[in-house]
Amino acid sequence: MEIISHNYKNYQCILAMLFAIEEINSNPHLLPNTSLGFEVHNVPFGERFTLENLLYWLTGRISFIPNYTCAKERKSAAVLTGISWTISEHLGTLLNVYKFPQLTFGPFDSVLNEQGRFPSLYQVANMDTSLSLGIVSLMLYFQWTWVGLLIADDHKATQILSNLRKDMDKKGICMAFVEMIHISRGSFLTNSWKNQLQIMGSSANVIIIYGDTDSLLSLIAIVNRGFLMWKVWVLNSKWDVSTLDKYFLLDLLHGTLIFSHHHEEIVNFTDFIQAASPSKFPEDIYLHLLWQMFFNCSFSGKYCKIVDNCQRNASLAFLPGNIFDMAISEESYNVYNAVYAVAHSLHEMTHNQVQTQYHGKGKDIVFFPWQLHPFLKNTQLTSPAGDHVVLNWKKKSDAEYDILNFWNFPKGLALNVKVGTFFPKALHGQQFSLSDHMIQWATGFTEIPQSVCSESCYPGFRKTLIEGSATCCFDCSPCSENEISNETDIDHCVKCPESHYANTEKNRCLEKTVIFLAYEDSLGKALTSMSLSFSLLTAVVLGVFLRHRDTPIVKANNQSLSYILLITLIFCFLCPLLFIGRPHTTACILQQNTFGLLITVALSTVLAKTITVVMAFRVTALGGIMRWLVISKISNKIIPLCTMIQILISVIWLTTSPPFLDTDAHFEHGCIIIMCNKGSTIAFHCVLGYLGFLALGSYTMAFLSRNLPDTFNEAKYLAFSMLVFCSVWVTFLPVYHSTKGKVMVAMEVFSILASSAGILGLIFVPKCYIILLRPDMNSIDHIKGKTDSRRKISLEI
User: Fold this and answer.
1) Which of 175, 176, 219 is nearest to 196 (CA)?
2) Is 476 helix (H, G, I), strand (E, B) or coil?
3) Within a 10 A sphere around the Cβ of 102, how many other Cβ atoms?
4) Which residues face 398 on adjacent strands?
């Protein structure tokens, strides 16, 4: 028996039931020697009329008596009800009293099986547990993060809304609005204008509609009244096209995406529909009505049958798609499976009774409909179409979905084209598939529509949430210094590691350039050349002094001190090579200590030379004591004494806080400075202070002895060299502290070279001039002549 509403879409369900019954009756292995029959009843609108018609059928009388039946010939085993859950619920209330098996072929509704309200009811459709996940997968595929939701305000609304919110929140999708549509046919007018303004005023271009055609009639009126185009509609099931056509909605729903239960094709079903005609099924009044309406047949209202003048070879396949769809619907597929479930249950029950009565008294086989329940509950079969049918709702699996695209251009085409699938049980990454090139979008869209609250934040920017708005509504802020984002819509920028820096667009971390005073740099080459040149020049001067070691100018002012000073200057000029090249720990330790030690030796030698000059001219006046001091060469003790003090400072420095290899990734953008950290800045400045003290002492002694009479008195040159030395290092300090990297190193190297060159130039160049260019001045005769002339001048005075 089939109880359905009266419209053309539902008529396909009747044909599906008839096709299944014909297959079963022709199958010798299923219900042998038994033929299935059926009855079809319309269900009028309204709970009262629905129950009234059901009581007529149950009692077999127009004046029905509850709990009694007068239809002795009726042998119905089960009732198939649908399409909406409301009809099944109303019928189930009464059928449950009779414990009559009821199979629903509409969408699965958990309420019908919960709390034991309808123990005699079985749902054929699979559960829609994963539907929300499928819808969210579609949103993610097209990057639709700002969508609206229209949902029927019924008992399922809360659970559906909760599932959608949970799945959307996980994936960062926001609801622009949620509208609960009243399902009562007379109540929609009060809120229609409010809903219409909500939809039209929303920036969301994608709207999800959850419900069936009957429960969303108010929405139909809203869309019709507002003529809402340029929206992408996502539906949870195929709506009744014929109903929508009444409200002129077909054009507006062109391009709609529909989640429909996946099912296999039923072999020969299409051929069966094409062959259906009033002549083949003369008792089917629906076929007679269709032929009369669409094929210009003469119709006898008295007998509800066509008479003649019909179009030859007329077929249901000739009807427009918006009138009758040749593709099997979800409901028809469920009817097909329901008939097979009942047939298999009857087969098992009959087989069980035959065995029982064979061993019993051998009475005729009789059964009551309620006896079918144990077999229906345990039904698990594979239908001829290959579908696994389970009626026990606790054992049902999640539905699989086909994603359909509704084509209705030109108007009346009404095609549902499969463009994708969603299989929740598939492997991760293979659940969702879509052929977006096959999709025809809604009127007004020439490319894939966008539905976002805020434009995407491109690489180099991050999302900044707007207070009081949804998480999908945000501003885009550029990443902070040395931070990047290389994807769109990033919540937080990523900081580049110390060895990298952000490029100008802030979408990539570039490796920082390592900076140090390298030999390959032009500055490094220049300083290296200067270092080697000065050291070579000093070696040449030393050679000149050694070659002319017996001349008066070389012997004057302590010959050995001149040799020590020249050798020290050679090493002073080579010392900058420790500062050039890639720094390492050993070089860092040697740099400052070697520099300090060599300059100390040089300055202490200059100090010794100035003391020698002073003592040489004071020896006669002071008598024997000074003469003894000159003889003992106490001035030569100054060098080791001063050097020991410098060594002591270096030892303290190295034991407390020695220099070490360091890097600075922040001073210069895009660069990592490799440098030698002084360790203890106090120790470093102590070294410079000690050198300054020696230079100042040497300058003082030289300045005091500058006017002493002597042919080769070098006190003036010593004073000038110390003045140059102090000027160089006093200038060095502020520049040194204001720079970093190779410039700072270059400044220190230049200061070493400049101060050493000052000593070399001012002390030894004049002597080399006399030795090489004025040898006549470097003779004893010249010295004696100059001495005699001085005496004469003295006597004349």
Assistant:
1) 219
2) strand
3) 25
4) 127
Which structure tokens are listed for 523? 């500055």
Helix (H) or strand (E) holding 513: strand 513-515
The parts of the chain modelled with pLDDT lower than 70 are: 1-9, 44-50, 60-75, 115, 182-200, 212-229, 238-251, 299-305, 307-309, 321-322, 355-366, 411-412, 557, 613-636, 705-713, 779-797
**What are the tens digits of pLDDT across the range 508-544?**
999 888 888 889 889 999 999 999 999 999 999 999 9
Grouping H, G, I as helix, E, B as strand and the rest as coil, residue 81 is: strand
Place of tokens 């609005």: 177
* 289 contacts 300 by C-beta, under 8 angstroms: no
How distant, in Å, are the alpha carbons of 61, 255, 462, 485, 617 from that of 496?
A: 85, 46, 15, 10, 70
pLDDT in tens, 331-368: 899 999 999 999 999 999 988 877 666 444 445 556 78
Is the pTM higher than 0.85?
A: no
> Contact at 8 Å (CB) between 725 and 755?
yes
Select from 661, 552, 645 the least CA-distant residue to 603: 645
Environment class of 192 (CB within 10 Å of its CB; exposed 0-12, middle 13-18, buried 19+): buried
Amino acid at 564: I
3-state secondary structure 692-733: HHHHHHHHHHHHHCCCCCCCCCCHHHHHHHHHHHHHHHHHHH
DSSP at 6: S
Any idea how long the chain is?
A: 797
Three-state DSSP state, 442: coil
- C-alpha to C-alpha distances, 518 to 2, 283, 446, 513, nearest whole angstrom: 94, 103, 61, 13
Q: Is 84 exposed, middle or buried (0-12, 13-18, 19+ CB in 10 A)?
A: buried
